[in-house]
Design goal:
InterPro entries: AMP-bd_C, AMP-bd_C_sf, AMP-binding_CS, AMP-dep_synth/lig_dom, ANL_N_sf
Strand order of the largest sheet: 2-1-10-9-11-12-13-14-15
Organism: Bizionia arctica
CATH superfamily of one domain: ANL, N-terminal domain
CATH topology of one domain: Rossmann fold
Number of strands: 26
Number of helices: 14
Radius of gyration: 23 Å
Helix content: 25-40%
Structural class: alpha/beta
Keywords: Ligase
CATH class of one domain: Alpha Beta
Distance between the termini: 48 Å
Family: Belongs to the ATP-dependent AMP-binding enzyme family.
Shape: globular
GO molecular function: medium-chain fatty acid-CoA ligase activity
CATH architecture of one domain: 3-Layer(aba) Sandwich
């Protein structure tokens, strides 16, 4: 089943608004028809089974293009609208993309090869105005590729996670089930749709006939609080930094009633217990879901039910419906209660693999089990706890960051002899970035730090720039000659 048809199975004729807000609105029926027109256009002029890139902030434009691409039998590749040119060039080349949907606000920042067709908002509107809907059906196999979500790989080169139509349907069904979502739910969306957590909000509310409110300016906290109340939002989803900013930076958040808010969800990294306790104390009648997931699992793997938030506060909970966990040692042997090992997951939501990366895929998926790279334990009640990450990847404000990518940029500064990127606990971002520098010869620390940060600002997205830069005199090396981090 094409996931588009799954989303609209019972909602395609609804006159109710799916998208709410002061800037843009659209009903289920109009979104369905507009997306079908985009799908018809793509099939007629581009074909099927092509990779189509989508770069845009959350908007009606993004949603319409995204759904049209899925319906057309093509593969959507949603990218960060702040992606570096070098990474965009790599993905354009790797995916052999010849069509890009790109918001006008992002278009001026990038150089796109002349042979690639770029469709902006005005172009999309023109297609919808001129295109009739053709009664057709693109046959889709359950394991057919629906989207490729690129994340930072351990080498610094973006790695494409291949998600099928079945993956999305399975994960959406599970999330709807444990969150008890219905057509009465309205979600305040501050998470970008190029991120799997953000996409899961779009998917679930489309399926149940709920609504979403888009807020692309989270730093203006007053606007977020107003949206929650003005549009009677029943749900809010955020990464750790969202909750930490709301709790620490907003003077009115904890004293605002939010009468319609039923629940909040948190994923994208560990939110420290102190913040969970602070939120639950301020809003004792709101359901707080701690969740754990990976892009490789479409979005979600586990959740901690709200009634256990006090007893199992630091737990990631239990697997979501239709997902199975186990913990293994380095030899692959299944471990028991309170024994530390790597967390493995199995379910229909597990990715097809990494795009054009067979060796990486074989390392990540073995006998249908996803090797998460996270070290965990399970207690006697069946609740799981993360202890560490085996992988190098840092998570800054819910975004995955490759240390090697940053190290490469800093090492391009002439005076830098060595650079080690590491993470440290941060109240706002959950994990922040530290650069430890060994410089060559005599140098002024202040001037060199400025030069390093300038180089980073030219080549890296803002969230990848180190918050701390410290200097050491010599490299620390082990007896074998390897650098000690």
């Amino acid at each position: 089943m094409n996931v588009f048809d799954y989303f609209f199975e019972s909602t395609k004729n609804l006159g109710k608004d799916f998208l709410l807000g002061s800037k843009e609105t659209i009903s289920f029926k109009k979104l369905y028809n507009n997306s079908l027109k985009i799908a018809t256009f793509l099939n007629r002029y581009i074909g099927a089974n092509k990779n189509i890139i989508l770069i845009s902030p959350n908007s009606k434009y993004f949603i319409t293009a995204y759904l049209g691409i899925l319906k057309s039998g093509n593969t959507c590749v949603p990218l960060n609208f702040a992606i570096e040119q070098e990474n965009l060039d790599f993905i354009l080349n790797t995916t052999e993309c010849d069509t890009v949907f790109m918001a006008k606000s992002a278009r001026s920042k990038y150089k796109i090869p002349s042979h690639i067709q770029v469709i902006e908002e005005e172009d999309l509107d023109q297609i919808i105005a001129n295109q009739s809907i053709v009664d057709y059906y693109v046959e889709v196999e359950k394991n057919q590729l629906a989207e490729i979500i690129f994340t930072s790989g351990s080498t610094g080169i973006p790695k494409g996670v291949m998600i099928s139509h079945e993956n999305i349907i399975a994960n959406t069904n599970s999330i709807i089930s444990y969150l008890n979502l219905t057509s009465k739910d309205t979600m305040c969306v501050v998470l970008p749709f190029f991120y799997c957590y953000g996409l899961s909000l779009l998917h679930t509310h489309l399926r149940v006939g709920g609504s979403i409110v888009l807020n692309n300016s989270f730093m203006f906290l007053g606007a977020v609080l107003n949206d929650l109340n003005d549009y009677k939002c029943t749900g809010f989803a955020g990464v750790p930094s969202h909750f930490q900013i709301l709790l620490k930076k907003s003077k009115t958040f904890k004293t605002t009633p939010f009468p319609d808010l039923r629940y909040v969800t948190q994923a994208g990294g560990k939110l420290h217990t102190v913040f969970i306790d602070e939120f639950v104390k301020a809003f004792p009648k709101k359901e707080f879901y701690v969740m754990y997931g990976q892009t490789e699992a479409t979005a979600r793997l586990s959740y901690l039910e709200p009634k256990m938030i006090h007893k199992k506060t630091s737990s990631i909970g239990k697997p979501i419906p239709d997902v199975t966990f186990k913990i293994v040692d380095d030899m692959g042997k299944t471990l028991g209660v309170n024994q530390e090992g790597e967390l493995l997951a199995k379910g229909k939501n597990i990715m097809l693999g990494y795009y054009k990366e067979q060796s990486e895929t074989k390392m990540a998926i073995k006998n249908s089990w996803l090797y998460t790279g996270d070290v965990a334990v399970v207690d006697e009640d069946g609740y799981y706890y993360l202890k560490a990450r085996k992988k190098e990847i840092l998570k800054v404000a819910g975004k995955r960051v490759s240390p090697k990518e940053i190290e490469e940029v800093i090492l391009s500064v002439e005076e830098v002899m060595d650079c080690t990127i590491s993470g440290y606990d941060d109240d706002l971002f959950g994990e922040a970035i530290q650069a430890t520098i060994v410089a060559n010869g005599n140098f002024d620390e202040v001037q060199l730090k400025e030069k390093i940060l300038h180089a980073c600002s030219k080549k890296l997205a803002l969230y990848k720039i180190p918050q701390k830069v410290i200097f050491e005199k010599v490299m620390k090396m082990s007896a074998s000659g390897k650098k000690v981090k």
